[in-house]
Design brief:
GO molecular function: adenylate cyclase activity
Number of strands: 10
Strand content: 5-15%
Radius of gyration: 27 Å
Largest sheet: 8 strands, mixed
Number of helices: 13
CATH class of the largest domain: Alpha Beta
Shape: elongated
Helix content: 40-55%
Pfam family, one: Ad_Cy_reg
Number of domains: 3
Organism: Streptomyces tirandamycinicus
Oligomer: single chain
Family: Belongs to the adenylyl cyclase class-3 family.
InterPro entries: A/G_cyclase (IPR001054), Ad_Cy_reg (IPR032026), Adenylyl/Guanylyl_Cyclase_3/4 (IPR050697), Nucleotide_cyclase (IPR029787)
Distance between the termini: 59 Å
């Protein structure tokens, strides 16, 4: 969010800010009092000693008043407090420079509002907390901005999903003449505290899992540049499908695809990195886990008559991880393998095939499998139990990566 670094609020832009349009201000020139029980203020009770008085000349009188009082109440319910501060006032009250405050707001994805009175006690507290982490030496300024950006991007997508998918299905007016706002308010009043607690719970569980991976890493470099199995799963013929399906049907198909993939990836020990509509990107710490996920995806979608065919490409190697995403040649190779994979099939690179052989999940060749079985029989032991089979394919040039030799991954018959 870019803001005007001045004390005057006379030049409000009236732009959007998370929470909706800017409501009107107190015509007397004073800032409206925050609710004493505001949950957005941190402790639930406003500390007046921490809040500077708002001078008359800093109040924005140009913001368009919102005509729907119920919409204002809904916004106040979600934000937990009344809009009270201009950006300049919020930064000053938090004891943060306008430059740093602006960088935090931009990173969180907040729109330019000029000097409209649009911020609450919670906005001031958030600035104090981030700046306090920097002052205490716990975070550098660039890292604090990254924290703001990653949190903003993640929660923005979550909020959009909840509004578009969840609330939309719940807020159909039950009676003629009722507005969606009238139906939404009591639902939000009931759901907000529960969803807020659930969000924190899931975040803590994910944080615990991520921390466990840090503890297992040999050193800091391994956490940034790690050896992972990376896979793409792509719906075949999706572009043609979009031309003949209605928007609602297409949305339902994409949602079913993403849900199926997310469930299977999580159930078998992988991590869903991101979804791209007709494609998902996943990662796993070992090749055997990634192979199992890929085969489960192919098998599950092949048995679903409503789904198009699927193809999967996987590679194994060094991957750079940053802000929850993965980058590097290994990722690019997995994407290219997906694009050349036959439908209902999994292609892997040579490094992945070698890793499966090293861990005993697949023989490098059927001749090797036969030799191992014969040796085990001679010793009176059980033959090796391989989960997967690998078949070398023709070498072919791959754009940007030279000539590669794909391997076809299948399940090995019991």
């Amino acid at each position: 969010m870019t803001v005007d670094d001045s004390a005057s609020g006379a030049d409000a832009s009236g732009g959007d800010f998370p929470g909706g349009s800017v409501p009107g201000t107190d015509p007397s020139g004073g800032a409206p009092a925050a609710r004493a029980d505001s949950p957005g203020g941190g402790s639930g009770r406003r500390q007046t000693s921490d809040v500077h008085p708002t001078p008359h000349h800093e109040v924005d009188h140009t913001a368009e008043p919102t005509k729907d009082p119920l919409a204002i109440r809904l916004e106040q319910l979600i934000l937990g407090a009344d809009r009270r501060y201009t950006p300049f006032q919020a930064a000053r009250t938090a004891g943060v420079s306008m430059d740093l405050a602006s960088r935090f707001w931009r990173a969180m994805g907040f729109a330019d509002i000029g000097q409209a009175k649009a911020l609450t006690e919670a906005d001031v507290l958030a600035l104090r907390r981030l700046a306090g982490l920097v002052e205490a030496g716990l975070l550098s300024e660039p890292m604090a901005v990254q924290v703001a950006r990653s949190t903003g991007q993640t929660t923005a997508r979550l909020a959009e999903w909840q509004i578009d998918s969840f609330l939309e299905g719940l807020t159909e007016p039950p009676e003629p003449g009722m507005t969606r706002t009238e139906v939404t308010y009591p639902l939000v009043e009931l759901l907000l505290p529960e969803l807020e607690e659930f969000l924190v719970y899931v975040w803590r569980r994910q944080l615990a899992a991520a921390t466990g991976r840090v503890v297992q890493a040999a050193d800091d470099e391994e956490m940034v540049d790690r050896r992972l199995a990376v896979g793409f799963a792509d719906l075949v013929g999706f572009t043609r499908l979009t031309r003949r399906l209605e928007e609602e049907e297409l949305g339902e198909l994409v949602e079913a695809f993403e849900t199926t993939c997310a469930d299977l990836v999580a159930a078998h020990g992988g991590r869903l990195i991101k979804t791209l509509g007709d494609e998902v990107l996943f990662a796993a710490d070992d090749a055997g886990t990634a192979a199992e996920i890929a085969m489960r995806l192919i098998e599950t979608l092949a048995n679903d008559e409503t789904m198009p065919a699927l193809r999967v490409g996987i590679s194994f190697g060094t991957v750079t991880t940053r802000m929850g995403d993965v980058f590097g040649t290994t990722v690019n190779l997995a994407s290219r393998l997906t694009s050349i994979a036959p439908k209902d099939a999994v292609l892997v690179d040579g490094a992945f095939a070698k890793e499966l052989g090293r861990t005993g999940d697949a023989p490098v060749s059927e001749a090797e499998a036969a030799e191992a079985a014969a040796a085990a029989e001679k010793e009176g032991e059980e033959p090796p139990s391989y989960r997967f089979a690998l078949q070398p394919m023709w070498q072919r040039p791959v754009r940007g990566l030279g000539v590669v030799e794909p391997w076809l991954l299948t399940r090995r018959p019991a």
